[in-house]
Design goal:
The complex is a heterodimer. Chain A is mostly helical. Chain A is built from 15 helices and 2 strands. In chain A, helix 4 packs parallel to helix 9 and helix 4 crosses helix 13. The model of chain B has no long low-confidence stretch (mean pLDDT about 90). Classes of the chains: A mainly alpha, B mainly alpha.
Chain lengths: ~325, ~325
């Protein structure tokens, strides 16, 4: 009798231990996001406890997540990409001039932008690989180049406007969906891209090679990873995702010269909240997307509290430091 | 005979300790190309007018001072993105405290230096004790300082007394005071790095923290010290800017892109972003390259947006000029 209770107690302990282990392994980004979202729900039940409100939340959050996934690829490889904010600026401002208010030109404009994105990523990758310039400096130079060239092309002030068919991806919703009520196109774009990059990053050799380069470049090289090729491909993927993110940003934002400014920093912050190590070797597509959602939720929370913009900067800065310190210290304890 | 050899040795040792970084070759090339283009396309002032040469250096002072601090932090394998807003808060607070009165100058300087030390201390503590990546930590503190500035000030605030303008416009004989201060800061940076234990430890921390710790270096203290020094250079740079502008404004720092520019000039000067390698003399050359580009573009009347394009290309080429020969791949 006593032995059975003892063994069952042991079993319960074991099960509890397993659950606890599982709980401990949950990346901190999920509880943090949930916490902020629940607070939002209490403050504004209509906005964040209804499907309608939640879907509205995802419209601006999705573009940031797309940018963050691209940035993650480069960060996981041990690099940086500071040019993605300028790419967003380029996509919005140059498209609005290219379109010349003609909806017919939407597809060519998008294709041209993707083409330029590929070119930007190619140059970034080649400069880092063959001229051996650190990506931080390469993409900083690219940021200045892309922003300068864009403003030169449009003549310093926004020209024309973005046609509705160009903007639909970032702006419109699929209406009358059962349960979800409405789904923003942007979220669908994110889900599709997220799935593609989840498979690419977590289920193919490419992803493993990126992580290997970020972890130990020399070791990766010696074990046969074609470092230069992977680097170039990764920079191209990052730039193309920045173009696609830019199209989504252009959908809900206005056309002005400050659009896209600082988005590279937001994307990097989203990655780090999502558990990416700057310096490389770690990354997860889903966590990073939730890192972006968390950042957006923080911004919404501060708006919800009705704080003026300057205070939101202070609190956003503090929260970013706190979140990263929390995940840094907790991952250290695990070791 | 022996005296000659000893002085010879001394000279050799001195020459070795100064060691001209390769970036100076690029500096000369940029200067010559800029001067020749100016000769062909414009009025050729760069080569003929010594005042323009002086002006190039004066234009570089604000960036140069803060770049010295940035160099120390980067040698310690850290980074400081908060310098731009540290410059802003210095400019605006000092001009606010001074209110155009000479008797307030000392209070203002002590006040903003205290702010600088506090910012550097916070940066250093977050990086070392909370183990937050320095890029994110200083991005966060930069947001915090930005918010504090924008919550309190929105436009030009206060003013600087005539006596304080000496810092920005004064001359000692034919040489502007600002250039003397820049050289003094560079010298202090060089002295700290190559003539003190702190400097030796900083290189150790930047090269390999674990090895430094195991050999008995108090790594946290060293890095916090570097961050405090960096913030103080940002404060001095802010004081210089406000003495030139005569009143502080919140946009002084971010408009000058002092955060990314100071990092770019540091790397152009040969300091490795991964830490443990580099020095302030290279950084000075990087800063002068920026100054020459600025002046050349002005002389040639280049469109401001194209200026940014060329600047981007030249930053990359400047760094490529020495990385291309390195055997190690970049990340």
């Amino acid at each position: 009798m006593t032995t059975t209770t003892a063994s069952s107690a042991k079993e319960i302990n074991q099960i509890l231990g397993k659950i606890w282990n599982g709980v401990r392994r949950i990346p901190p980004v999920f509880p943090i996001f949930l916490l902020i979202f629940i607070i939002l729900g209490f403050l504004n039940p209509k906005g964040y406890q209804t499907m309608n409100g939640i879907m509205t939340f995802f419209r601006p959050a999705a573009p940031l997540a797309v940018l963050a996934i691209g940035e993650m690829l480069v960060l996981a490889m041990g690099g940086f990409d500071l040019s993605i904010g300028a790419i967003v600026t380029m996509v919005v401002l140059a498209s609005s001039k290219l379109l010349a208010n003609d909806p017919e030109k939407a597809l060519p404009a998008i294709l041209i932008m993707i083409g330029i994105g590929i070119l930007i990523g190619l140059i970034n990758g080649l400069v880092v690989s063959f001229l051996k310039v650190p990506s931080f400096i390469t993409t900083l130079g690219m940021m200045l180049l892309v922003r300068g060239a864009t403003l030169y092309y449009i003549g310093g002030a926004p020209q024309g406007y973005l046609t509705d068919n160009w903007r639909q991806f970032g702006r419109n919703y699929i209406q009358d969906v059962p349960f979800f009520v409405k789904i923003p196109y942007a979220l669908i774009v994110l889900l599709v891209l997220g799935l593609i990059f989840y498979i690419l990053f977590h289920r193919t050799n490419y992803g493993k090679q990126v992580l290997a380069i970020g972890d130990n470049m020399r070791a990766a090289q010696l074990s046969g990873v074609r470092v230069k090729l992977i680097r170039v491909v990764t920079h191209i993927l990052c730039s193309v995702l920045a173009v696609l993110g830019g199209i989504l940003v252009g959908g809900y934002g206005g056309v002005n010269v400050t659009i896209g400014e600082g988005m590279e920093m937001q994307a990097i912050a989203a990655c780090v909240i999502g558990g990416v190590l700057l310096g490389g070797g770690k990354g997860n597509v889903i966590n990073v997307a939730f890192g972006a959602f968390t950042l957006q939720a923080i911004v919404n929370l501060l708006n919800q509290l009705g704080l003026p913009k300057p205070y939101t900067d202070v609190i956003q800065g503090s929260i970013i430091i706190f979140v990263v310190a929390y995940s840094a210290l907790s991952s250290q304890r695990k070791r | 005979m022996t005296t000659i050899t000893t002085t010879d040795n001394k000279l050799k040792r001195l020459a070795r300790s100064v060691r001209i970084p390769p970036v100076y070759i690029f500096l000369v090339v940029v200067f010559l190309v800029g001067g020749i283009l100016d000769q062909i396309l414009s009025d050729g002032q760069i080569f003929t007018n010594p005042l323009i040469l002086l002006n190039i250096i004066v234009r570089s002072v604000a960036l140069g001072i803060v770049a010295v601090g940035q160099t120390l932090v980067i040698i310690g394998a850290s980074i400081d993105l908060s310098v731009a807003y540290t410059i802003s808060i210095t400019a605006i607070m000092s001009s606010y405290i001074m209110q155009g009165k000479t008797e307030n100058v000392l209070t203002a300087i002590v006040g903003v230096l205290a702010i600088g030390i506090a910012i550097g201390l916070v940066n250093g503590l977050i990086v070392t004790k909370l183990k937050v990546n320095p890029f994110i930590a200083t991005l966060g503190t930069s947001l915090i300082i930005k918010g504090i500035i924008n919550a309190s000030f929105s436009n030009y605030t206060g003013s600087v007394p005539k006596s304080f303008e000496f810092f920005g416009y004064g001359m000692v004989g034919p040489i502007p005071v600002s250039i003397i201060i820049l050289l003094l800061i560079v010298f202090i940076g060089w002295f700290l790095l190559s003539r003190t234990q702190f400097g030796a430890h900083l290189y150790g921390v930047g090269g390999n923290v674990e090895v430094a710790r195991l050999s008995g270096v108090r790594t946290d203290r060293v890095l916090i010290g570097a961050h405090i020094f960096c913030s103080m250079t940002a404060v001095i740079s802010g004081l210089f800017l406000v003495s030139q502008m005569r009143a502080g404004a919140p946009w002084v720092g971010p408009n000058g892109i002092f955060d990314l520019n100071s990092i770019a000039t540091t790397v152009i000067g040969g300091t490795a972003l991964s830490g443990g390698k580099g020095g302030v003399w290279g950084t000075l050359a990087g800063v002068l390259i920026f100054g020459i580009l600025d002046t050349t573009f002005n002389q040639l009347g280049v469109n401001p947006y194209l200026k940014s394009v060329f600047q981007g290309v030249i930053i990359v080429l400047a760094v490529a000029s020495y990385t291309i020969r390195s055997k190690k791949d970049a990340a």
